[in-house]
Amino acid sequence: MITLGELADKLGGVVKGDDNCQISSLSTLTQAGSGQIAFLANAKYRPHLETTQASAVIVSEANAKYCQTNALVLTNPYLGFALVAQLLDTTPKAANDIASTAVISSDATLGKGVSIGANAVIESGVILGENVTIGANCFVGKDAIIKSGSQLWSNVSVYHRVEIGQNCLIQANTVIGSDGFGYANDQGRWVKIPQLGSVIVGDNVEIGACTTIDRGALENTIIEDNVILDNQIQIAHNVKIGSGTAMAACSVIAGSTVIGKNCTIAGLVGINGHINVADGCVFTGMTMVTKSVKEGGVYSSGIPSLPNKEWRKNASRYKHLDEMYKKMAELEKAIAEIKSK
Q1: Neighbour count for residue 5 (Cβ, 10 Å)
Q2: Cys-Cys with 4: which of 21, 63, 201, 277 at CB 3.0–4.6 Å?
Q3: For this structure, is 320 an active site residue?
Q4: Where are the beta strands (DSSP E) in 21-120?
Q5: β-strand 189-192 against 183-186: which pairing, if any?
Q6: Among residues 281, 212, 219, which one has the least CA distance to residue 253?
Q7: What pTM was computed for the model?
Q8: pLDDT, tens digit, for every residue of 154-181?
């Protein structure tokens, strides 16, 4: 439990109503009840302020006058929602203490407050910083480093010599440091190229479930500070992702591509290998990035759905585009000649 006044003090907000209102949890405007706090970040939901049963609502100054219950007034209500959620978070740790079934090498180094779940394997030379949490069934390979405050949920695999920074959160079943897709072709026979680099993950990085980050072939794959990666993402070998970049589910980056800082990559985006993407780029859903992008901005290439008959007609015409272009050029030339007479 926390009072509305205490929340205001922690978040730098203003209470309109009862400072002593007791808050136990968060909910939506339509589902909240007594003891819960909701939030309004989108004006289209403003009518719900009149009917909500929440004990309090996080609102902007402009919307506070519409609130029929206690209000916590903040400049950015959505950010306020995130911060209140952190204060009221009841998510358990991935592990508590060190399980008797964990397998820990005798020369691994464990900082103060480390927790390791059941059946986890910590190999030779591993260094775990203070308050690191390793979930059940995780594997941390030889000479890997996980710095203080980072948490791995269950079944995460961290390969040899991978380095993970401070206060990172890695969701279940993610793989960091697996071999990059490197092969040479010998007259139809694929010859594997050992991947000799590693993966370096910065501080305050969050990585979703079932995401894969491959190690570099010679140099390292690098994920800089404050990057957030969603579920089921593929990051190929030698990729570098700049700080503050966000990447949504099922997107992929091919090898040796450099992504700038503070980029936003929506779901199902495919980014080609060996290219550079400038800082501040936004790629909307299903965009295919085939060449370097030199300036920040919003880029799109996904084709919206159409009724099947219409799509089939357009697809059939697509193969005639070059022919149509040549005819259009001839017509423009002929028109120009007529006008010049």
Answers
A1: 15
A2: 21
A3: no
A4: 22-23, 25-26, 36-39, 56-59, 70-73, 103-104, 109-110, 115-116
A5: antiparallel
A6: 212
A7: 0.91
A8: 999 999 999 999 999 999 999 999 999 9
